[in-house]
């Protein structure tokens, strides 16, 4: 066996996309997950494939690459196998377009400037008149001050999209192993050569950290910590409705909330329908570690913001809520590339709330970097050895015995500088 | 010293007894139920009913009405009818065990002033010193071809129609499934004037008989329950309705409505004995395979659960100690969520929970009596579970096109395909791709079934999950315990404020100074009923 052996750690959508690209490139890929494939962050999001929420810069270029790749990738998956064709149907790819609505004058000014900047980089961003908005979204509030249509925005059923990529990865020869958690790394001659799980040792030539919000914990176990921390989000799901929301509609505050680094609760309305007729309503952002407890006031704030956009939804029953953890990096950029501290370790993580959309572009970029091919988009901004990623010590959560953690006074955390606090999730 | 405030969610037999005992122990009580009247599923009655009416439908109605009136008119009781608990909010450190820190129970989030599917309700919050969860159970039904046809209903629904609306479900009814509840339902149907063709118990004689007939002296302790069963059995005999063991309905057929059922003999593992199929014309079919505890709120509170062995009842159930404490400080559990044993056992558990939650004296002799009675109830629950296990062979009744999730019409073949594919076998991923469990009932009906199928199809144990999906909890985890309207959710909640505040919808008059009138001098002095004699001896006709 002289093929390069790759172990992708994490079988969420990022891991699935990376496994697929690397397997298609002829590498011998094993995909490992501590739980089930796509069971964590991937299946707890809304399935955003967005260009609209990113300002000009490296992440927008990655988003544009991903948006171009999505239809190609799904077509290729459907082509390769019958299972792939079924999986692509279940991915519910829907290029429905996004509409950003401002409801204040300040919001309107911000949105106008933001979309103008995006247009300069090739994003299609069309200002809508009041009449055009009413035609596009008949139930949206009349009290809006500006609206911009982004025809490139799309939506997928995220777990289905991940399953489609994974099905194709397996069709291309990748092996999936679930229920195996990485406990430690094995370093020989300064190089990561293996990972230990409860089931034994897995050796490979290179390892890809695709553990999403658990990357902080995983990378610390491997001895090369990166500053990825969970940022909690909540989504409300209504009972199925007759067609009411036709695009991905969100308020202009959303971009601000995405870009903020606040620890406390941030909310912005993101409203969209699913193929089944339910309306998904997001979103909240809160950094509180892996705290999975329901916070009614977060759901209430999300509901209130959504009603500002769609007042007529007030009587609609919400039948469930779900929450997930986004992989948060203090500078809001993903981490893609080789870890210079530990040869053999690569990262593809830290996409915060954009991982579904950015997965296929990330995987393409990673493949190009691994194989030494020229990259289509710049990778410098996503490099591992940048201050926001390396500045802080390893996340201590789950790495220390509970007793010693409790002894630490609360104030000690609060006294740290903001950047470091980002890693100190409690 | 301030009085302890005990919140009780659920006003069925367990919750009402908890409220009663907590009042007797001197606490303030807030009793919460989504229905207009206390009583739960068990004491369901038509809205206009205000007093007992003749016949066996009474189920100890008079004793229940006395207890109800004692609780609702008590000056220290606040009764919140038509109030849903939609969430429990845990505070305290995120990484500690649930309830660590303050020792206070989670905050209760309520929707007041309307039924569970209501609208325009007021959002309120309640912080109590102790919380008693008495949320009960709903009936469990296993799927089989045709079970989604109109005219097929759960045994519980049939009984609710008879009890609550006095509707007769049919003239040629077959009652099938497992458990003594089938007898009770058949008896209720007969009494209401329905024609029952036969009652089919899927359990075979060795399983059912051995467990019911062993250690009969223990049954004597559950006299009420045993007498009730005997009464139901006698009703069957009187109406010449056959009761068959080891036989069940494996298919329902009909054009737009059930017209006939196929019954078949079963082996002890519930696999079908080929060649024993019989076709029976019917106009209604009632099925029930035991009960599913309603675990949303215990899970939201962070209570530890215990798994039951595969097939033994519809667990998991809430873990409680000798005083009905759950693993979460300040949170108590009583009734069917701790193990299915019927109303008398639920009442005793409720009384122990309410008394302890209120800070009642541990040394009172009455409590010892109650505990012994509670232990007998638990033994009865174990007997029930042993006598009526779900046989492992039931998936053999399914065909590829048999609907498993009725809300989303997901069939067995679709689930097999999902669970056979590692790319989508994780519970949440499969749920999103097959849509099983995403409909209006939120997997309350199909959740345990899907989890069991998943385990059997080799996609890992039912609870195999990640941090985001704790092991074993998946089918019962519903962060929103009840649906609510977006507008209701968006409104800021009104807290039930100071300890002495009287909420709008309280029952019974509150004379000035009433709260100070009674001094907790002991359960017997305070109330003749709880906990000194919580199981009313005049109440022998309890079902389930």
From TrEMBL, chain A:
Top-level division of the source organism's lineage: Bacteria
Residue ranges occupied by any FAD dependent oxidoreductase domain in the UniProt entry: 5-369
Disordered, as annotated region: 388-426
Gene Ontology annotations for the cellular component aspect, listed alphabetically: cytoplasm
Biased composition annotated in UniProt, kind: Basic and acidic residues: 405-416
GO molecular function: oxidoreductase activity
Pfam families the UniProt entry points to: DAO (PF01266)
Keywords (A to Z) from UniProt: Oxidoreductase
Feature: compositional bias, Low complexity: 391-404
This protein's name: Glycine/D-amino acid oxidase
Lineage of the species this protein comes from: Bacteria, Bacillati, Actinomycetota, Actinomycetes, Kitasatosporales
Automatic annotation (TrEMBL), chain B:
Protein name: Thioredoxin reductase
Domain called FAD/NAD(P)-binding: residue spans: 5-349
Keywords: Oxidoreductase, Signal
Residue ranges, annotated region (Disordered): 459-479, 492-544
One of the record's GO molecular function terms: oxidoreductase activity
Cited Pfam families: Pyr_redox_2
Feature: compositional bias, Low complexity: 520-544
Signal peptide (residue range): 1-24
Keyword Signal in annotation: yes
InterPro entries linked: BFD-like_2Fe2S-bd_dom_sf, FAD/NAD-bd_sf, FAD/NAD-binding_dom, Metab_Enz_Cyan_OpOx_G3PDH, Opine_Oxase_asu/HCN_bsu
Organism: Streptomyces qinglanensis
């Amino acid at each position: 066996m002289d093929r390069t052996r790759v172990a992708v750690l994490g079988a969420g959508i990022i891991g699935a996309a990376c496994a697929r690209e690397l397997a298609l490139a002829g590498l011998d890929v094993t995909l490992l997950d501590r739980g089930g494939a796509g069971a964590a962050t991937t299946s707890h999001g809304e399935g955003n494939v967005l260009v609209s929420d990113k300002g000009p810069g490296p992440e927008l270029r990655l988003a544009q690459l991903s948006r171009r790749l999505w239809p190609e990738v799904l077509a290729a998956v459907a082509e390769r196998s019958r299972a792939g064709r079924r999986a692509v149907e279940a991915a519910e790819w829907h290029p429905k377009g996004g509409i950003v609505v401002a409801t204040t004058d300040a919001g309107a000014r911000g949105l106008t400037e933001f979309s103008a900047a995006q247009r300069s980089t090739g994003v299609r961003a069309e200002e809508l008149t009041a009449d055009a908005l009413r035609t596009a979204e008949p139930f949206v509030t009349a009290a809006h001050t500006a609206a911009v249509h982004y025809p490139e925005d799309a939506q997928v059923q995220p777990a289905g999209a991940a399953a489609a990529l994974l099905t194709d990865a397996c069709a291309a020869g990748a092996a999936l192993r679930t229920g195996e958690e990485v406990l430690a790394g094995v370093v020989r001659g300064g190089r990561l050569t293996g990972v230990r799980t409860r089931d034994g040792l897995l050796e490979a030539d290179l390892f890809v950290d695709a553990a999403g919000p658990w990357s902080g914990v995983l990378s610390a176990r491997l001895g090369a910590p990166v500053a990825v921390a969970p940022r909690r989000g909540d989504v409300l799901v209504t009972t199925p409705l007759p067609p009411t929301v036709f695009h991905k509609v969100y308020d202009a505050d959303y971009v601000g909330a995405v870009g903020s680094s606040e620890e406390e609760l941030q909310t912005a309305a993101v409203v969209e329908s699913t193929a089944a007729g339910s309306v998904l309503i997001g979103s909240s952002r809160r950094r509180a570690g892996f705290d999975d407890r329901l916070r009614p006031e977060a759901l209430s704030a999300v509901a209130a913001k959504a009603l500002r956009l769609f007042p007529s939804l007030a009587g609609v029953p919400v039948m469930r809520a779900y929450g997930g953890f986004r992989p948060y990096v203090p500078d809001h950029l993903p981490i893609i590339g080789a870890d210079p501290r530990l040869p053999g370790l690569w990262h593809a993580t830290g996409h915060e709330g954009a991982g579904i959309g950015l997965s296929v572009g990330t995987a393409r970029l990673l493949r190009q970097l691994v194989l030494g091919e020229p990259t289509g988009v710049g990778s410098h901004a996503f490099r591992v050895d940048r201050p926001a990623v390396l500045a802080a010590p390893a996340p201590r959560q789950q790495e220390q015995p509970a007793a010693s953690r409790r002894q630490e006074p609360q104030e000690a955390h609060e006294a740290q500088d903001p950047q470091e606090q980002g890693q100190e999730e409690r | 010293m301030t009085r302890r405030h005990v919140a009780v969610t659920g006003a069925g037999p367990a919750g009402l007894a908890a409220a009663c005992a907590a009042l007797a122990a001197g606490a303030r009580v807030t009793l919460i139920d989504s229905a207009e009247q206390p009583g739960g599923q068990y004491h369901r009655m038509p809205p206009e009913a205000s007093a007992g009416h003749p016949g066996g439908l009474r189920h100890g109605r008079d004793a229940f009405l006395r207890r109800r009136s004692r609780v609702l008119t008590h000056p220290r009781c606040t009764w919140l009818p038509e109030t849903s608990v939609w969430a429990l909010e845990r505070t305290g450190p995120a990484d500690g065990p649930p309830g660590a820190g303050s020792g206070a129970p989670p905050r209760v989030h309520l929707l007041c002033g309307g039924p569970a599917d209501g609208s325009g309700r007021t959002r309120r919050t309640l912080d109590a010193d102790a919380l008693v969860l008495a949320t009960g159970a709903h009936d469990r039904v296993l799927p089989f071809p045709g079970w989604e046809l109109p005219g097929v209903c759960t045994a519980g629904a049939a009984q609710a129609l008879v009890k609550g609306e006095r509707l007769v479900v049919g003239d040629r009814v077959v009652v099938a499934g497992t458990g003594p509840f089938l007898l009770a339902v058949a008896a209720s149907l007969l009494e209401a004037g329905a024609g029952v063709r036969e009652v089919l118990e899927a359990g075979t004689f060795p399983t059912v008989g051995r467990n019911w007939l062993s250690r009969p002296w223990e049954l004597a302790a559950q006299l009420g329950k045993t007498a009730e069963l005997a009464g139901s059995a006698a009703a069957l005999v009187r109406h010449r309705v056959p009761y068959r063991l080891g036989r069940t309905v494996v298919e329902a057929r009909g054009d737009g409505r059930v017209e006939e059922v196929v019954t078949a003999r079963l082996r002890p593992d519930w696999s079908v004995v080929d060649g024993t199929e019989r076709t029976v014309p019917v106009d209604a079919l009632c099925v029930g395979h035991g009960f599913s505890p309603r675990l949303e709120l215990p899970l939201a509170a962070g209570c530890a659960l215990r798994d039951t062995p595969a097939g033994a009842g519809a667990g998991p159930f809430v873990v409680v100690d000798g005083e009905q404490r759950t693993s979460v400080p300040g949170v108590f559990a009583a009734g069917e969520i701790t193990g299915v044993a019927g109303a008398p056992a639920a009442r005793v558990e409720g009384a122990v929970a309410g008394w302890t939650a209120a800070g009642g004296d541990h040394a009172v002799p009455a409590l010892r009596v109650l505990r012994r009675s509670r232990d007998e109830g638990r033994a009865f629950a174990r007997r029930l579970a042993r006598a009526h296990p779900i046989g492992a062979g039931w998936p053999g009744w399914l065909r590829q096109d048999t609907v498993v999730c009725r809300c989303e019409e997901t069939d067995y073949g679709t689930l097999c395909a999902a669970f056979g594919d590692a790319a989508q076998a994780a519970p949440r991923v499969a749920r999103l791709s097959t849509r099983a469990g995403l409909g209006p009932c939120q997997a309350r009906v199909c959740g345990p079934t899907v989890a069991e199928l998943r385990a059997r199809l080799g996609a890992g144990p039912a609870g195999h999950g990640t941090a985001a999906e704790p092991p074993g909890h998946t089918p019962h985890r519903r962060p929103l315990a009840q649906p609510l309207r977006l507008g209701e959710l968006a409104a800021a909640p009104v807290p039930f404020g100071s300890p002495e505040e009287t909420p709008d919808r309280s029952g019974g008059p509150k004379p000035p100074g009433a709260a100070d009138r009674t001094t907790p001098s002991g359960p017997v002095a305070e109330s003749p009923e709880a906990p000194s004699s919580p199981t009313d001896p005049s109440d022998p006709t309890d079902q389930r």
